[in-house]
């Protein structure tokens, strides 16, 4: 049963990846359709990392800034579900305190700067500058936790660019 569940989870991420490829190739409508179908299949109690990833990319398929914001908020809510799932474990399980870390927590930590950056951009589009500044600060704080690699450099550069745009508004 565990193997079957793992294969099923990999299949979901594969389907998300296929829709992302469509999105990056410029077929926003087909990507949006596939994300919508998968969202309906996952349901509200689907795997939080799957919901987070899917909602994060679904936001990029939206034409209306309010809809984009709604999807980015869904992504953040799903990420928070992963953070809150991590709870006490048995002593010796993970660390001296026995705190068990959710298996997807490292992925969510790596995703967090982008989630907040997208929310800041959404709020800027909607002329909600105070909310944009809050999420920009959260993005910068989360980015400080990233390893110094190409991904982190790109995220930090995007944060700097958005911060400049926000100052110009």
Report on the architecture of this protein:
- With 169 residues, the chain is mainly α.
- Helix content is 75%, strand content 2%.
- The chain has seven helices and two strands, in the order ααααββααα.
- It has helices at 2-24, 28-42, 48-59, 65-85, 105-125, 129-143, 150-168, and strands at 87-88, 99-100.
- A two-stranded antiparallel ribbon has the order 1-2.
- The longest helix has 23 residues, at 2-24.
- The chain is globular, with a radius of gyration of 17 Å.
- The N and C termini lie far apart (54 Å).
- The relative contact order is 0.09.
Binned, the helix content reads over 70%
Q: What is the end-to-end distance?
A: 54 Å
Task: Tally the beta strands.
Answer: 2
The side-by-side strand order for the widest beta sheet comes to 1-2
What is the mean pLDDT?
87
If you compute it from the alpha carbons, what radius of gyration comes out, rounded to the nearest whole angstrom?
17 Å
Q: Treating each run of at least 4 consecutive H or I residues as one helix, how many helices?
A: 7
Written as H for each helix and E for each strand, in order along the chain, the element string is: HHHHEEHHH
Overall shape: it is: globular
Q: Biggest sheet, in brief?
A: 2 strands, antiparallel
Low-confidence stretches: 1-7, 87-99
Fraction of residues in β-strands? under 5%
Q: Structural class, please? A: mainly alpha
Key attributes of the depicted protein:
2 strands; mainly alpha; disordered N terminus; single chain; about 170 residues; 7 helices
């Amino acid at each position: 049963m565990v193997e079957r569940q793992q294969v099923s989870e990999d299949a979901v991420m594969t389907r998300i990846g296929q829709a992302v490829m469509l999105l990056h190739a410029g077929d926003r409508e087909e990507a949006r359709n596939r994300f919508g179908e998968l969202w309906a299949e996952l349901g509200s109690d689907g795997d939080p990392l799957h919901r987070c990833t899917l909602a994060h990319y679904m936001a990029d398929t939206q034409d209306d800034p309010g809809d984009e914001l709604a999807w980015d908020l869904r992504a953040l809510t799903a990420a928070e579900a992963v953070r809150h799932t991590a709870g006490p474990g048995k002593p010796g399980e993970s660390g001296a305190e026995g705190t068990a870390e959710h298996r997807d927590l490292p992925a969510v930590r790596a995703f967090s700067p982008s989630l907040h950056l997208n929310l800041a951009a959404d709020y800027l589009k909607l002329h909600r500058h105070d909310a944009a500044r809050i999420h920009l600060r959260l993005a910068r704080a989360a980015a400080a936790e990233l390893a110094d690699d190409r991904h982190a450099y790109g995220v930090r550069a995007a944060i700097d660019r958005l911060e400049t745009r926000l100052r110009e508004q």
